[in-house]
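explain this:
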Amino acid sequence: MSSDKTSQDKGIAGSIANFYGAMARQPMEMMKLGLNTSNQMFGILSGLGPMGEGPAADKRFADPVWDSNPAYKMLKHSYMLWCQNTISWIESLDLDNRDTERMKLLTGTILDSFSPTNLLLGNPEAMKKTLDSGGQNILAGLRNLVDDLVHNEGMPSSVDRSKFTVGDNLGVTAGEVIHRDALRELIQYAPQTDKVKGTPILIVPPQINKFYVWDLAPGRSLVEFLVQQGYSVYIVSWRNPGAKDADYGLEDYVKSLDHASEIVTKVSGASKIHVAGACSGGITMSMLLGYWAAKGIDRAASATFLVTILDTDGAANTSMGLFANLEVLSLAKTMSRARGVVQGKDLAKVFAWLRPNDLVWAYWINNYLLGQTPPAFDILYWNDDTTNMTARLHGDYMGLLENNGLVSGTAKVLGETIDLSKVTCDSFVLGGSTDHITPWDGCYRTVNMMGGASEFVLSSSGHIQAIVNPPSNRKAKYRRMEAAPTDPEVFLKKSTETEGTWWLHWVDWMAARSAKDKAAPKSLGHADYPGLCPAPGTYVVQEAGRA
């Protein structure tokens, strides 16, 4: 079994070296693997032995032919047996937990690549379409392949980009850019009610993606929903940095965000504001909140953290959290130093290969074997529309993650040590039950870090769907309880489930912490901060580094 021993971590290369060392020390484990697999394979082929089984909900083998056709059934179970035994073998080696998880992930990626469903003859759906269409799907697939080789760096396209235009059918809620600096634009949205809440909300998106995930198509836009509920909404639109922006770091982003919050109070006339951040935007927001607490600035009426991990020990609770939140960013260190930025498209590729069945091979099958056009889905378009991260900001984030700075007390910004226990406003923390990037139990740890009352909500969704969860989503549901316990497992057992989107609960939660309603403003901006251009602004559509 895997050892609990700990050693100095030397990264992925060190884990691979340790893996080969363990293989050399334990040759009998590999011999057992070979003998057991051979015997079990013989049992499957002869119909005398047990079948290898994978996840019950494995979408790759959903076609009924996999169980009705004897040849396909043997192929499926032989492959499943191979995968199952290989992972069990890795777990049997004398490796520490981190090395074991790394090797399982790397090996799992290889095993997924050899799935029979990725080949024409091994995919009954593709074979049926080939026969029905006279091979037209193969010709269409070749055209798609050539197009992806030329225009998508060889990766199978995940979305039909021709169906979307930011400012046309995405990011269309009415508003104005009221301020712009070297790092961000600040957008104020037009009210859609006669009265608005006395406390506005400032939204902080992640720096590695564009802001309009909060403002997708009408009916699916969280910004639109908030405005319709009577909130004065402001959002940051981060600029896409280029190589010349390499020296902009976390302090610069926090300073820019602090200035944006001052502008919101001046334009709205409110002394306090709600702040809401997602993923890396939530980390930046936490640094701002800690800075305010250290300086005695009482500006936050509430803080909302969506799919955000602040205590990075929580990321190590699951293999995906361990690898995706720490290892992937570590892989980008060399590239960021050389280029001045971490390119969003490079990170997107690595994250895709962490879930290859859903984010690579599913599109391989759709585009090339079935010869179909990629889906036209707004979330997939946004996910493909990445931005860069400056080398210094990337390094600052890595320092926080590796040192767990927000827990260890080593996090500092603008000359102040950050202590989130001194942040006394109430906090709303959201996790996604199927989130593979920021696992929900890692997000949960935030409730134990803040100084005010903290509520945790667990949405039945993944990383992005946790944000894009409109009332029209009939499958939406979430779990919550009044006083969040210290242990996430206790929360899971004692919390109650509610049908519908958490959006409805969130606006009520903020309303209870807002100043009384007042008349909606008749115009946007302020004498000192007049409108510069209509939303969604200019930064969201500019190329990297363009000012």
